[in-house]
């Protein structure tokens, strides 16, 4: 935590008119303008909304309809300082509850409350991407990791005395093992253009533009077998090919909305090696014939925003972005677009809607983005890690990359290791390595003399794995064979101190908090599951709840529009399957065997249900029919 970047005064230097002119449509300017006013006084007033309405020509109801969708924006006076404490599983396993309790006690307020002096408002954070150094919390743009509880009051005192956010960049520890593809992650030095170019940077792009042979570059990507590293694992070359077959204009979008709890790999790339992403995007844009691209970045990554903003400016000044790059006939404009706190924006069509300046609801598919994407035009959407692979693939050849993995899944993958593990961190490993090697050899096993109880291979999304799965090959097909999936490879390790019912409760709280509310199965299902689990951890469970949870979960999986609703039941249901005795102890005996659940009504309700339909009170009348 030792590098200073742009502060709030510089961020507010641009005028409203300049912000409006920067974006393609009035709708697309709404989020940047809302950020502009939010940064001025930590909330958006009625006058601000009216001003944005005047600037964009949109109605006040349109502005509010967009703004209130996102968690980052607040439309009433709040504290001068926003305190956000991470309450997702990686932080909870490493002392996050104590961090929250200390902050709450020190400030004298609960979540969504403001101190009487108007200095602080306390919010929940749905993952700050600091999982390997958990627990974490932020104050404005300053991020704090691994802070002992006794030091928290003195940190708060600094802000009481008027400390101004300095935007200190916590790049985290270097990559935990020796990199093969992502060599820039050895240190943070390649975030500077000069150092990146010394390390073979932009040579792949230079070679592509010198020959002008986009087909040859495409062929190397096809030979490499690189697939989407955000969780979908769909072959990249097929998406590229589908987009370039459609008429221009075409767009390239980088999904940097890395919101899955336990995932922080993209943050490492953006903060330590941002030019590998920029170069990868320029290569992909040249292949598909896109002249305009966007990086959609989650608001919880302010440090990534500043570093990327600087790196893009450096590349533009060096003639590596913009018109006629390096004297060629290829032009590519790259812009950075900041989200505003919505986990659903990790879903590609939700992200596109948000980038267009709309509420980030998922779209029905088909049509796919390759046909009808940004502004209805063909669009290539990939995540940060996938795009950052391209410079190394073109420099070394597709065959080289393919040989790094196994026949099922070519290449390497960045694995995020957090939770109860001796050596948490980011690891680059060849796909096909065993899960045991990752946990025991690289991660150092379970600390404190405890034993392994389970693993979450994809953050909060996948069915959990057990110790008996340790010899599984870490490739997409092998994980799928046991009913789980690898996702973005956010592996959260759980030792025998974890209560699996409590885990299900927190996952349900996260899903309930993050559901966009568009479709009934997810909107009502996540709330119902949360309310039922709240009753159980408070010692008010009933045997009928188990069958009800299974019915709701099946309904959500089969009828939800997007992956959030479809995957939200996975951990609660697999927990019930694997740890039935723990659930029965909670429901029949009202006892938590691990001593984690409070079994009382006080001190546990952190996320009040948004609609309070009272499903548990009406249990005898509830009948779910599975389609």
TrEMBL record:
Cofactor(s) annotated in UniProt: [2Fe-2S] cluster
Domain NADH-ubiquinone oxidoreductase 51kDa subunit iron-sulphur binding stretches: 501-546
Domain of life: Bacteria
Molecular function GO labels: 2 iron, 2 sulfur cluster binding; 4 iron, 4 sulfur cluster binding; FMN binding; metal ion binding; NADH dehydrogenase (ubiquinone) activity; oxidoreductase activity
Coiled-coil blocks: none
UniProt keyword list: 2Fe-2S, 4Fe-4S, Iron, Iron-sulfur, Metal-binding
Stated family: Belongs to the complex I 51 kDa subunit family. Belongs to the complex I 24 kDa subunit family.
Protein name: NADH dehydrogenase
Protein source organism: Leptospirillum ferriphilum YSK
């Amino acid at each position: 935590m030792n590098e200073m970047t742009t502060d709030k005064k510089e961020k507010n230097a641009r005028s409203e008119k300049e912000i409006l002119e920067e974006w393609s449509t009035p709708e697309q300017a709404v989020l940047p303008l809302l950020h502009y006013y939010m940064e001025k006084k930590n909330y958006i007033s009625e006058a601000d909304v009216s001003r944005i309405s005047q600037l964009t020509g949109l109605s006040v109801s349109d502005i509010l309809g967009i703004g209130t969708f996102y968690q980052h924006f607040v439309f009433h006076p709040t504290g001068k300082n926003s305190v956000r404490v991470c309450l997702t599983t990686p932080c909870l396993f490493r002392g996050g509850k104590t961090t929250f309790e200390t902050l709450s006690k020190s400030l004298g307020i609960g979540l969504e409350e403001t101190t009487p002096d108007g200095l602080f408002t306390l919010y929940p954070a749905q993952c700050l991407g600091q999982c390997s150094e958990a627990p974490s919390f932020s104050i404005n743009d300053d991020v704090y990791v691994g802070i002992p509880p006794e030091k928290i009051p003195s940190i708060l005192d600094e802000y009481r005395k008027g400390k101004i956010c300095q935007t200190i960049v916590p790049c985290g520890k270097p990559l935990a093992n020796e990199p093969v593809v992502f060599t820039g992650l050895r240190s943070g030095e390649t975030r500077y253009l000069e150092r990146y170019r010394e390390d073979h940077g932009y040579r792949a792009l230079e070679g592509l533009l010198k020959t002008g042979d986009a087909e040859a570059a495409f062929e190397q990507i096809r030979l490499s077998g690189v697939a989407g590293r955000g969780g979908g694992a769909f072959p990249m070359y097929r998406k590229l090919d589908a987009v370039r077959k459609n008429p221009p204009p075409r767009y390239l979008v980088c999904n940097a909305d890395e919101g899955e709890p336990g995932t922080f790999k993209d943050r490492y790339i953006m903060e330590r090696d941002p030019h590998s992403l920029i170069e990868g995007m320029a290569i992909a844009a040249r292949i598909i014939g896109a002249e305009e691209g966007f990086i959609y970045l989650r608001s919880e990554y302010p440090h990534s925003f500043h570093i990327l903003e600087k790196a893009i400016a450096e590349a533009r000044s060096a003639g590596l972005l913009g018109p006629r790059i390096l004297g060629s006939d290829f032009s590519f404009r790259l812009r950075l677009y900041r989200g505003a706190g919505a986990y659903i924006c990790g879903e590609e069509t939700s992200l596109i809607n948000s980038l267009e300046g709309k509420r980030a609801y998922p779209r029905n598919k088909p049509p796919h983005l390759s046909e009808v994407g940004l502004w209805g035009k063909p669009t290539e959407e990939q995540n940060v890690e996938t795009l950052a692979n391209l410079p190394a693939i073109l420099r070394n050849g597709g065959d080289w990359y393919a040989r790094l993995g196994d026949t099922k899944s070519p290449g390497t993958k960045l694995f995020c290791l957090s939770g109860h593990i001796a050596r948490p961190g980011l690891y680059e490993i060849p796909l096909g390595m065993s899960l045991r090697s990752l946990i025991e050899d690289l991660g150092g096993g379970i600390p404190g003399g405890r034993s392994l109880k389970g693993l979450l291979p994809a953050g909060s999304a996948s069915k959990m794995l057990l110790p008996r799965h340790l010899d599984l090959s870490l490739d997409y097909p092998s994980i799928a064979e046991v009913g789980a999936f690898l996702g973005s490879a956010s592996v959260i390790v759980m030792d025998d101190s974890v209560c699996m019912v409590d885990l299900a409760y927190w996952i349900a709280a996260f899903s309930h908090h993050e559901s966009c509310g568009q479709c009934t199965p997810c909107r009502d299902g996540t709330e119902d599951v949360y309310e039922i689990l709240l009753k159980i951890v408070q010692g008010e469970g009933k045997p009928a709840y188990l069958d009800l949870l299974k019915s709701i979960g099946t309904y959500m999986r089969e009828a939800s529009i997007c992956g959030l609703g479809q995957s939200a039941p996975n951990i609660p249901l697999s927990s019930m399957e694997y740890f039935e005795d723990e659930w029965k102890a909670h429901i029949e005996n009202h006892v938590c065997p691990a001593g984690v659940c409070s079994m009382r009504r006080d001190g546990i309700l952190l996320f009040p249900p948004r609609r309070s339909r009272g499903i548990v009170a009406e249990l005898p009348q509830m009948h779910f029919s599975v389609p």
